[in-house]
Design goal:
By secondary structure, the protein is of the alpha+beta class. It contains 12 helices and 7 strands. The protein has helices at about 5-10, 15-20, 25-35, 45-60, 60-80, 190-195, 200-225, 230-260, 270-295, 295-300, 300-315, 320-330, and strands at about 95, 105-110, 115-125, 135-140, 145-150, 155-160, 175-185. Helix 7 (about 200-225) packs parallel to helix 9 (about 270-295).
Length: about 350
């Protein structure tokens, strides 16, 4: 049995109640202590199982998923770019902080003693106050894009309480972090983080997380339809949700199989399509479910209210029309249209 089979079973059974009751950082520690912190690497024959695990965690709590996905992504990145390195220490928990804010760059410099040091401010650092390590995007002295690992418990790392105002996803604590001569370790060659096949594999996996959260939203409407007297409008909305989610699930399964079949192929087109389709599906599911259920769950059901607040914020990891334009450019460059059945 894959570890992903175990985690899906654990989360969808009684353990989901435990995770729902824990703050996200404690939930992450719970998963890691249970031996569920390592998933099969994407492109190694079990990509669908990896995505099923991400979807299962997302269905419980999106802030927990944000931390869990980053930890599992960090391990996959280390395996891909730093296979000869020591890897992640036992008991460590990892973030991946690679968003770039305009006008702000984290700088990596080499000191006279040969050690590498980080200086600057990094935004969008989810889980910064509770993690032990992070992979961070940065820029070296030649102005090349780099990736480095950094221990977060050292004196040169200051976790601020700044940078996050949204109500949605507030529990993942994506604050700004300041680095002042913090010791770091370059991972891979300059430019390798974006150039590796796994970059788009990881981006596609986010769509599986969106799908898991959308399924959780839809499950509330499904439960209401089971309990309540038949209502034609509500059943129509449930039917539309069913079609939307099943189509998205089929595309996710197809995408996972494609990645496993061609792990070294550029997966940008595939990832963009998956993300755009699932983003639209999740947006529609949230709209239909909240219209069908009314104000009650939004105001009186803590789990549903949190999902409804978190999902729109988490979906903004999509670049929306910019990604549509990128995908359209790829399709326009193909010799023949790709839509034959």
């Amino acid at each position: 049995m894959f570890v992903t089979d175990s985690i899906v079973l654990a989360i969808t059974s009684f353990n989901s109640e435990i995770l729902q009751a824990l703050p996200p950082m404690e939930g992450l520690r719970y998963l890691l202590d249970a031996g569920l912190g390592t998933l099969p690497r994407p492109g190694h024959g079990a990509t669908l199982q990896r995505w099923q695990a991400l979807a299962a965690v997302a269905a419980v709590d999106l802030s927990l998923l944000k931390l869990y996905e980053a930890h599992t992504d960090a391990l996959a990145i280390l395996a891909e770019l730093d296979s000869a390195g020591p890897g992640a220490p036992a008991g460590s928990s990892w973030g991946v902080w690679c968003a770039e804010m305009p006008g702000t760059r984290l700088r990596l410099r080499k000191a006279q003693d040969g050690h590498y040091l980080l200086d600057g401010r990094k935004a969008w650092c989810s889980g910064a106050s509770g993690l032990t390590h992070a992979l961070v995007s940065c820029w070296n002295e030649q102005d090349q894009a780099c990736l480095a690992s950094v221990v977060l418990t050292q004196a040169g790392v200051h976790v601020t309480d700044e940078g996050w105002q949204a109500v949605g996803m507030a529990a993942c604590a994506s604050v700004d972090v300041e680095f002042t001569g913090a010791h770091a370790f370059p991972i891979g060659q300059p430019g390798a983080y974006l150039a590796r096949p796994g970059f788009w594999h990881g981006g596609a996996g986010i769509a599986a997380a969106w799908y898991g959260a959308a399924s959780a939203v839809a499950s509330h409407l499904h439960a209401r339809a089971q309990r309540a007297a038949p209502d034609a409008m509500r059943l129509a909305q449930l039917g539309q949700i069913d079609c939307t989610l099943r189509a998205s699930a089929a595309l996710l399964r197809e995408g996972a199989a494609e990645i496993d079949l061609h792990p070294q192929r550029d997966a940008m087109e595939l990832a963009l399509r998956l993300r755009l389709v699932v983003e639209d599906a999740a947006t529609l599911v949230l709209q239909l479910a909240t219209r069908a259920l009314g104000a009650g769950p939004l105001c009186r059901d803590a789990r549903f209210a949190r999902l409804a607040a978190d999902l729109p914020v988490f979906l903004r990891q999509s670049h929306a029309e910019r990604d549509q334009a990128s995908l359209g450019g790829i399709i326009a460059g193909a010799q023949d249209h790709p839509w034959s059945l």
